[in-house]
Write a structure and sequence with these properties.
Blueprint lengths: L6 E2 L9 H30 L5 H20 L11 H13 L7 E4 L2 E7 L1 E3 L1 H19 L6 H23 L3 H18 L3 H26 L3 H11 L10 H13 L24 H33 L4 H25 L17 H16 L4 E2 L2 H10 L3 H9 L1
Helix pairs in contact: 1-2, 1-10, 1-12, 2-12, 3-4, 3-5, 4-5, 4-6, 4-11, 5-6, 6-11, 9-10, 10-11, 11-12, 13-14
């Protein structure tokens, strides 16, 4: 009789998900290479002599992020649950910092940045803070999430404050959409009724759309969103204005073909696509690496989502499961929305591509968030070699291997 492999679940001795870790490192490494390629013309145009400006900054934050991951891996994720209220109110305060004179900064007309020694978007930290808050809140109240009040309206009331700040103060619709979507997914996972979300989604989207259209016509505020919708439907109608960015993106994608024009050989990054190292970096990937390169990048994100789901399913407690669901949903949704925007499958939203788009603090926060879920769930086999031998010797190798590993 085959001896059972001993499993350990003590947090301090837990191994980590190697496949997820390798996937993140591949995304990070590929992202750095593409930031170098996409940002060189813009950096050279801005500085006059330094084409490595953005790459160097991104590389520094990537290094800091990896070091931070090592420290975070030593922290038991269950401790975060004790500070979930602090995470919530800290997120709200961070979002309000943009209103503080001397701290809040406007970039490209949007007041979404703060400068505290380093410049960053507080919404990036708020996303993680709200995930921690809702993972704790829903796990604590999971037995009471019944009916439309306790199971839908009451949990969403705290979300109104940060979303109101994001949309009303920062005019940050894309971050609002992602946060609402992530929280909704977490609530559905815990057992809230889907029909409440469908009804509220249809009514809310209709009301918001009508309100934005009315406000844009009456005051002109938010009129750029109407232009984005128009350019999505027909970008060539205003090819020199609102449709410019998406047209240049489509040119880049079309030029890439199957295998691309070669790494570093993009033409559209030469100031045709505005800031190609940011939201539209996927267009540069498509042009330089072609369909095959895009497919590989999408596959890496698909593996990330898959491993995140596996980790959530194997979590030892509800808080850990919801935390994994939240972080996986956050990165997965941002990747899906960004790729959809770049390929003109949906209107422009200003969503960054995780691990690829330039943004040091955003990258650092993402790495720290991912490190929270890489380690805390996976049990490990005391003797990996013996475990592999047992799998090979058993009848039905592949089914048993998949069953035991996953």
């Amino acid at each position: 009789m085959t001896k059972k492999v001993k499993l350990k679940t003590n947090f301090g001795k837990n191994s980590f998900d190697f496949l997820l870790c390798i996937t993140v490192l591949l995304l990070l490494g590929t992202g750095l290479i593409m930031v170098l390629s996409a940002s060189s013309p813009s950096a050279l145009a801005e500085t006059g002599n330094d084409s490595y400006l953005y790459f160097r900054k991104q590389g520094i934050f990537a290094g800091i992020g990896i070091i931070a991951m090592l420290f975070i891996s030593k922290i038991d994720y269950r401790k975060y649950k004790n500070f979930y209220k602090i995470a919530y109110w800290g997120s709200v305060c961070l979002l309000l910092l943009v209103l503080v004179p001397g701290i809040g900064k406007s970039v490209n007309g949007a007041k979404r940045w703060v400068s505290l020694g380093i410049q960053f978007q507080p919404s990036e930290l708020a996303k993680i803070g709200l995930i921690v808050y809702y993972a704790a809140y829903l796990s604590i109240n999971k037995k009471n999430l019944k009916g439309i009040w306790n199971g839908f309206l009451k949990p969403l009331i705290p979300l109104a404050i940060p979303i109101g700040i994001l949309f009303g103060v920062q005019d940050h619709l894309s971050a609002s959409i992602v946060i609402i979507a992530v929280v909704s997914i977490m609530m559905l996972i815990i057992g809230c009724k889907l029909r409440y979300f469908l009804t509220a989604g249809v009514l809310g989207a209709s009301a918001i759309g009508f309100g934005m259209l009315t406000l844009a016509k009456a005051t002109g505020k938010g009129s750029f969103r109407i232009a984005r919708l128009t350019s999505f439907l027909n970008p060539w109608q205003d090819a020199q204005g609102s449709g410019w960015q998406i047209i240049q993106s489509l040119y880049a994608i079309g030029s890439g073909g199957l295998f691309g024009v070669g790494l570093g050989e993009s033409k559209q990054k030469y100031l045709y696509i505005s800031e190609p190292h940011n939201d539209f970096i996927f267009a540069v990937i498509a042009e330089e690496l072609g369909f095959i390169g895009c497919l590989l990048v999408i596959t890496l994100f698909a593996i990330f989502i898959w491993r995140g789901i596996v980790i959530a399913m194997k979590a030892p407690d509800t808080f850990g499961s919801l935390l994994a669901v939240g972080i996986t949903s956050l990165i997965g949704l941002q990747a899906i929305i960004n790729i959809a925007v770049v390929t003109s499958s949906m209107p422009v939203t200003g969503m960054a591509l995780p691990f690829f788009s330039y943004g040091g603090t955003s990258l650092l926060i993402l790495l720290c968030g991912v490190r929270c879920i890489i380690k805390y769930i996976e049990v490990y086999k005391e003797n990996l070699i013996n475990f592999a031998k047992q799998c090979i010797c058993r009848a039905g190798f592949f089914p048993n291997l998949i069953k035991n590993i996953y």
